[in-house]
Amino acid sequence: MIQSVDGLINDFASKSSKYKAAYVYFTDFCDDKLFNKMKSSCSKAIRRCKEININFIPNESQVFTLDVPNAFYRCYSPNIEKTNDNVMEQIAEQIVTLCATLEENPGVRYKNKPLDNASKLAQLVEKKLENYYKIDERGQVKGKTNSQLLIIDRGFDSVSTVLHELTFQAMAYDLLPIENDTYKYKTDVANGKEREAILEEDDDLWVKIRHKHIADVLEEIPKLMKEVSSKRKATEGKISLNNLAQLMKKMPYFRKQITKQVVHLNIAEDCMNKFKSNIEKLCKVEQDLALGTDAEGQKVKDSMRVLLPVLLNKSLDSYDKIRAILLYIFSTNGTTQENLDKLIQNVQIENDSNMINNWMYLGVPILTTSATQRRVSRRTRSSEGTFQLSRWTPIVKDVMEDAIENKLDSKEWPYCSQCPAPWNGSGAVSARHKPKTSYLEERKGGAKLIVFVIGGITYSETRCAYEVSQAYKSCEVIIGSTHTVTPRRLLDDVKALTVTKPKDTVYLKDE
């Protein structure tokens, strides 16, 4: 923002400015010092100046990011001076712009320990919310609204960041080279013509199937293609000038529908080719390690025996083996230095060993200590129908459900501010089964639960926001983070935590 204001001032510094006037819009709060600097330098040239509070990216209808991936390094690297809170200041300001856009002044809570990032950020957000609503443009102080904001450090659920997911969106972004939500595919293998498709909210089919299991997607897309084709044939069969005119109008629609289905079928088939070649057996091992039980519910007695086939499999790359080793370590709450050294040497990943070691900077135990770490108690989900290779549920889903049902422990999840009335244990937001009314009607007067993860969210975690919102009709769940991560990208970021980088600036957008 400072650079932008200085650039504006420079543009109007000389009398021969190429602009007649300026319309200035700030995407977040502009402090008085900066505003006065601009006012004293070029106020005559400014026709309009407004704060519009949109310093975040609405990736999906219930998902947002702040587009500050460098914040991961800034928050968790041991090379960074922790007294420097520039990164936290920026993140807090951006979260406030989200709340302002939603017209919410939420009660703020955070996950206590093992790190203090969540606590610091929660305090800053609460302070900035208080300041923002004191200077509301209507000149009124806005009290706490019917919403709650939970702030969590990335290390709260390490398992979900490395596990292979078999729901469509998470699987595709993990296994395929999708960059900037763009999937490249070939329509004709013979001539090698490559096309691009954007995976976005405007694609109704993508929105409909992205959270479904890959098995369901492979079953559903061919059915949809057959349905569109049959409608097209039925229209073509009626020969009359009127019907032909109608058909010509509908052709672009049919073409668009078929194209979308072909794209998503290509993605699904690409995923399954990867899955069948290597990932299928790996998924069983990962699920057993993550849950500590096998598909029949029997306790895993020897985690190393479960892990060994993965380490001996020569067709798996080092990333897959590192992910399995991490799940083994997470399942045992840390391992000995001797055992870790053997694992690293046997798999020959010495150059990538910090992908494992550096998790300790996220508060995740890698080496066994004398202090026993309490395991997170999980909700029982045995009654929920799940695929054998998709038994793990991200911990954030438990957190969301507990928050809505007022079951979060106040010692583990302290408040930074007064608890809004519907979240005070009265059960006002926990009506899971209510008389049927329109979805939009319920959402209009309902509560909002906003979850923010410092250091990246996974696609499996974003899916949980939709699932919980669907189950608890009276509360809409919105989830966000500094950025979205895939397992491979996160491992690269974890490895880089101990790399010394040039001194960072206040501006943290992607360098």
TrEMBL record:
Pfam families: Sec1 (PF00995). Gene3D superfamilies: 1.25.40.60, 3.40.50.1910, 3.40.50.2060, Syntaxin Binding Protein 1, Chain A, domain 2. The keyword Methyltransferase does not apply. One of its GO terms (biological process) is vesicle-mediated transport. One of its GO terms (molecular function) is syntaxin binding. Keywords: Protein transport, Transport. PANTHER family: VESICLE PROTEIN SORTING-ASSOCIATED. Belongs to the STXBP/unc-18/SEC1 family. This is Syntaxin binding protein 3. It comes from Naja naja. The gene is STXBP3.
